[in-house]
Structures are given as C-alpha cells and as structure tokens.
Amino acid sequence: MGRGFAGLRRSTAIGREVLDRLDALVVLATPDSEARITYVSPQAERQLKLGSAGGNATLVQLFDDSDRIRRQLQRLLAGQVKDHVELDYQAGDRQFVAKVLLLKNTENQSEDCFVVQWREVSLRVRDDQQRRESDLHRSSVVTEAVSQIAAAVEELSVTAGEVAANTRVVKEAAESVNGKAAESRDIFFAAKGAIDEISRRMTETSATLARLSEKTKLIDAMVSTIQGIADQTNLLALNAAIEAARAGAAGRGFGVVADEVRQLASRARGAASEIAGRIAEVRNGTIEVSEGFEESFQEALRGATNAEAAAIALEDILTANRQVREMLLRINSATEQQEEATMEISNRLSGILVATEGTADDSRRRFGVREEL
C-alpha cells in the first residue's frame, strides 16, 4: 500500500488530503538518517500519541534506541535492506510495529520520502500471556506425570541393579570360559607337538629299517660268495685226492692242489670276517630300531596323557557353560520385570505427548493469528 503513494505525492496537498481520509496509521519523513517527520495521519496522531509532530521532530526521536534506529534507516537508504525495515514502538500500554519503506519518485527525487506504516501488536502480547498461563497449566500436568515417571524409573533402577549384578557374574563366568578355552588350546597344541615328534621318530625308524634291509642284501651276496668258494674248495679237494691216488708216492700234483686249497681257505676266512662285520652292523641297526620304537612309545604315551588332560579341560568348559546358562535365565527374569516398568514409562510418556501436542496446536494457532495481524 505504501508504494502506491508515489503517484499521489506529485501534489503534496493532494497527497496529504488523501492520507487524511485513510483509516491508517501513516507517518511521512525525509529520506535521510534522521528522518525528519513531514506528515502524521490523524489516526497515527491519536493512537500513537505523536502530537502534531511538527517543527524539527524526527522519526529517530520517537524511539529510545536512537542509534540503532539510525543505523537501520542508513541500511535502508544504502540498499542493504531489500524492501523495508521493521521497528518496535511502545505507546503507553500498547505496542506497535513500524514498517518503514523508502518511496522514490523517478521523475522528481525531491519528493522521495520514508513512509512509515504502523500496526498494533498488543493482541499478540495478550495472546502470549494466555499462552504462558496455558503453558503453566500444562507444566503442572507434565510435572505430575514426571513424578509418576520418576517412581517408575526408580523401580526400573532397582531392576537394572539386579541386571547389572547378574551381568557381572556372567562376565566372570565368561572370563572363566575364556581361560579354560585358552588352556585347552595350549593342551591341544602340546598334543600336536607330541604327535609331530612321533611322526619324526617313525620316519627315522623307517630309514633305519631301510638301511638294515640293504645291509641284509649285502650279507646274502657274501653268503653266496662263501658258498661258491666252498663248492670250489670241495671240488679241488676231490681232484687233489684223485691225483694223489694216481701218483702214489710221486704225487707232485698234490702240492699244486694243496696250494689252491690254501688260497681258497684264505678267501673263505676273509669272507667270514666280512660276514662278521656285517652281522655286527646289523646288530647295531637292530638296537637303533629298538630304541627308536621305545622313544616312539614314550611320545605316544605322553600324547595320550595330554589328550586326557584336554578332555578334563573340556569338561570344565561344559560346567562353566552350564553356569552361564543359569545366569542368563536369571537375567531373563530381571529383564521381564524391566520390560513391565518400561511399559509403565511408555504410558506416562503418552500423557506427556498429549500435553505436548496441545501446546503445539496452540503454537500453530498463535502463528496463524500473528500472520493475520
């Protein structure tokens, strides 16, 4: 509405005559930081108690905080405010808001001016008072509900204490389970090490048996050699006997045969010595095999002992798990009590929600009234 005055103010007299006939609170002022008042409508004079506002009266002087008002007008003049500024004004027990617009006449800048439109907001103040009273009533309702909630929360707190105590017991039992599990793990690892050692021993034993087998083969070959020599010796001895029988006293060939027999006998003795050495090696190998199997047996025995210890540890774990289950049953019972208390809190909170929704509805209604004003 204020911007429509630009055309009317081509004639100051006509403009003021029109403004006088309007049922509006309007004040005109010069477009500068002091805003000297040049016109006050009759309605503004009566309701705002501005008097004649003639002479050198300024818009800034109407407000207590003149410096702040001056800065606001300067911002409007500098174009830092897009459209207008609003200023609060008190007239006795009535409150107003002054909307200041800058009107410019593009044809004649001398006719530029501030147009101040006033609207009363006292109704909003009364509405705020009613709101406070309503809020006080609702606050009492909320306080009562909160006290009831506090009682329910106290009951919940007691139950929560029981839950906490049982939880601590469960925690200790869980720690015990963890300890037993760690012990079982170590025991199983030790059993695995024993089994690995048995495997190594058995591998060594297998290698020893393989060597023993090879040596046995050598003994068989040597025995065959001795048998061959024995056969030759027998044959030569037979020949020597025949030759000696033929020669009679002159059995020269007997000496040759006898010499061959002696050589064969020497070879037989060497083979026998070799056989004795091989047999000694076989005996030593047999001893190694016996010792290896003994050690393997001992390792197996230790593995069995470790397995038994692992079984005992597992039984302890099962016992600890049963204790955990009993604790969980107790926690479940306490949780049910806590659930009942929580339902009570939920019901109380529903009452608070209804009161809060009422406050929200009042706020929306007040907002609508404020928009109408």
UniProtKB/TrEMBL annotation:
Entry GO MF terms: transmembrane signaling receptor activity
This protein's GO CC annotations: membrane
UniProt keyword list: Transducer
SMART domains on file: MA
Any GO BP: chemotaxis
SUPFAM superfamilies (UniProt xref): Methyl-accepting chemotaxis protein (MCP) signaling domain
Presence of keyword NADP: no
Annotated organism of origin: Ferrimicrobium acidiphilum DSM 19497
Family membership noted in the UniProt record: Belongs to the methyl-accepting chemotaxis (MCP) protein family.
Methyl-accepting transducer domain segment(s): 143-353
Designated name of the protein: Methyl-accepting chemotaxis protein PctA
